[in-house]
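How a chain folds remains the central question behind the approach discussed here. For one protein, we set the task of working out the structure tokens from the amino acid sequence alone. The sequence in question and its structure tokens are set out directly beneath this paragraph.

_____
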Amino acid sequence: MAELSRRRILVSGGALGALGALGMASPAQARSLMEWTWAPSGSVAGSGAGDDPRWVWDEEADPLVASLLDRGAVPEVNRLLRDWTRNDQPLPEGLPEDLRAFMESARQPPSWADHGKLNIAARFNESRGLYLNLLNGVGGGMLSTAIPKEARAVYYSKGGADMEDRVAKTSILGFAVGAPNAYRPGGSCAVEAVKTRLVHAAVRHLLQQSPHWGGGIPISQEDMLVTWHTLPTFAMRKMLEWKVPITAAESEAYLHVWQVTAHMLGIKDEYIPATWDAANAQSAQILPRNMGPTPEGVELTDILLGQLAEQTSPGSISRPLCDALARYLVGDQVADWDGIRREPVWDPLISSAWPKLVKFREGLIPLPLVPQVAWVIDEAARRYVLFYLTKGKETKIEIPTTNRPG
């Protein structure tokens, strides 16, 4: 428990708390934040070249997918892969041989994957599903729109034209990670991670051809790490902040399933944090230099919250409730960057009621101490999770062949 308490302090101060660092830093400090100083000794590999991840991409997938796009093979590849859904399922016949060779290698978990930890993570994800789906769905979504490179990449790629479909496809991987059989034979996490890796490679190739992009090569190793920290690092920080009881074994296992997923997405082992301490040190360096407001991020946030409002409580209070829930999850700075309205009624209600609801769920306080409004918030969260679980079953991750039209 002493180690977990120490970790709670580190997570609280080291992850998203770092977002204000650039605003407060002196010029010299700001320059130091722009330098890559995170040591690869803190990674799962334990060593590495120490190259700045802003200038590293995916040397295996990128030329392969660019070739598939250039030779017009992607539509047929998407058709063949549509029914490839299980970790233990053979790759379909008819795939190009270079793609088949890559995918057979890429679908294999890393040698350091620990199935004992993955089993603990599966049980943890199941028992904490509401929190995790809310944090990775609403919270992670709001954080992603406050990452300029990610917001612009989403907006100007094909997925930006249909955000409901785009969010559903993003949710597929998140829910696969949280599934009880994530990396077991009957699960789908390896499949969805490999498909996502191929999508990233396609977006890197295609966005550079967009007249609206102009941002160099997108989705670098650092860009993927930033997104990674808006998922497990953010979720763990918030659960500890809410005083959700988490054992040391559960904490380590939850980190491990996301370490494996990072590897499967093509993040190099030398950049994947080995511990929560290392994760927080890394996020404290790279989040400040990668987050802020954009017009695209504000527009995407409005679309996302509008969709969320449609799936929660009906009537005029639904959008204000969703805005307040999002602000509560990500904090004022990110919410302001995203253009999320302040709600004078719901903001204080959620900040007061949600912690009590969590304590009741964890058996820490009796029912009479939970305000009635907490159940309205609880139902809104449940409907959101249910909606995107359902949407994820209706769509497939596919390699894009174009950018956003227009």
In short: The first helix runs from residue 2 to 14. The mean pLDDT is 87.
